[in-house]
Amino acid sequence: MITPDALLSSQTLLTSLVGMLFDFMNARQLELPELRQRLLDHQHDARLPLAIWLDALDELAITCPEPGLGLKIAEHIRTDHTGIVGYLCLASTTLGEALLRTSRYARLLADTIPASLQSSGADTVELVWIQADGIYGLLPEELAVAAFWVFVQRISDWPLHIKSVQLASPCPGNEEIYGRWFGCEVKFAGQDTRIRFDNSFLQAPVKLADPGLASLLEQQAQAMFMSLPTHDTLSQNLQRCLLKYLPEGGPDLPLMAHELGISRRQLQRLLAQRGLTFQTLLRRTREQLAKRYLADPNLNLTDIAMLLGFSEQSAFSRAFTRYAGQNPRNYRQQVWAAQPSK
Q1: What's the pLDDT score for residue 133?
Q2: Which pLDDT score, from 0 to 100, does residue 184 have?
Q3: 6 pLDDT tier (thresholds 50, 70, 90)
Q4: Pairing relation of β-strands 185-187 and 164-166?
């Protein structure tokens, strides 16, 4: 789930990834001037606040309400969108080297979920985004996995196939779209996000391999990686405050500032530095907590409404339907149906 900690821990992504969104919008002839301007406001920044990226995807989802939207956006990924990590992969000798470097420097692309390359049996390897738990929702998750797959296919001439894909988000009800796109079984509601390959995948040559250039780029990537900021403590304190006061009717900005021992203006400024407003944070927190609570069979809808600070169940149902596109009961049924039987 997206907790205040996840949203406010200075999480960012590479600003050049926005180029993929622009290319998609241009291909679809989508004007969206306000969205374009919000993204262009950061064009000279190396890093983009994660919240702005998530809001941009939310707006695209509203404009293009179609299944598998992330798969279609991902088809516009280019090497120049991916910065030094993409060029380092492009200079690698094999896809195995490229995957190792992707997992090692994943934070340069997006300072969100750590990635790792893991062996799974005698003939299988997996790229795993650990502890994902559906934290950012289906659209950002499917976009990240699909963009990775599109990029990998473009840097190697070998016929490549995936064994399986696992997404942490609940099944959207049209899983066949994902199976056709990836060309393999796609599972939902997993404990993490992972792509499974045959071991031979690692030996596939990269078209433009340049070991000398790769060595130089790796030194640069290492220096950039070490310069990434560490997470601050504001996130942890806000998480504690929000979770404490939500069941009491919902916290407001002055209360949160008082709890943190700072002025209202200081808190607003700290939020703005992370691309957030208090209302955006509160909305996203409620949204993702609601999804977590709805997956818990021990909580009824009245309990959930109370835990999220709504005055009554109907208010919670209206709010959830507005941002999830379906009512809480239908969402709960989908989540439970996607969970493996015990």
Answers
A1: 47
A2: 97
A3: very low
A4: parallel
Say how many C-beta atoms besides its own lie within 10 A of residue 92's C-beta: 27
One-letter identity of residue 146: A
pLDDT band at residue 268 using 50, 70 and 90 as cut-offs: confident
Half-sphere exposure for 60 (CA within 13 Å, toward CB): 29
Angstrom CA distances, 45 to 28, 178, 197, 268, stand at 26, 34, 35, 21
One-character DSSP codes across 110-148: BSSS-EEEEE-SSSEEEEEETT-TTTT-HHHHHHHHHHH
- Residue 261: CB partners within 8 Å, gap ≥ 6? none
Radius of gyration from C-alpha coordinates of the chain: 21
Cβ neighbours around 85 below 10 Å, total: 24
Fold of 234-338: Arc Repressor Mutant, subunit A (1.10.10)
Percent of the chain with pLDDT over 70: 90
Report the mean per-residue pLDDT for the chain. 86
Q: Which two tokens stand for residue 16?
A: 């050049």
Angle at 239 between CA 258 and CA 262, to 5 degrees: 25
Tens digit of each residue's pLDDT (9 = 90 or more) over 215-255: 999 999 988 887 776 655 566 577 678 877 888 877 888 98
- Ramachandran bin of 2, using left for φ above 0, alpha for ψ from -120 to 50, beta for the remaining angles: beta
Q: What's the distance, CA 144 to chain centroid?
A: 7
pTM of the full structure = 0.69
What are the CA-CA distances from residue 23 to residues 1, 77, 80, 197, 319 (Å)? Answer: 29, 8, 12, 29, 32
CA distances from 258 to 253, 278, 281 (A): 9, 14, 17
32 pLDDT more than 50: yes
Cα–Cα nearest to 302, from 329, 283, 284:
329
Both structure tokens of 48: 């983009």
Domain boundaries, the chain: 66-226, 234-338
Q: Which residue has the tokens 């380092």?
A: 88
Rounded to whole angstroms, how far apart are CA atoms 148 and 89? 11
Structure tokens at 240: 């504690």
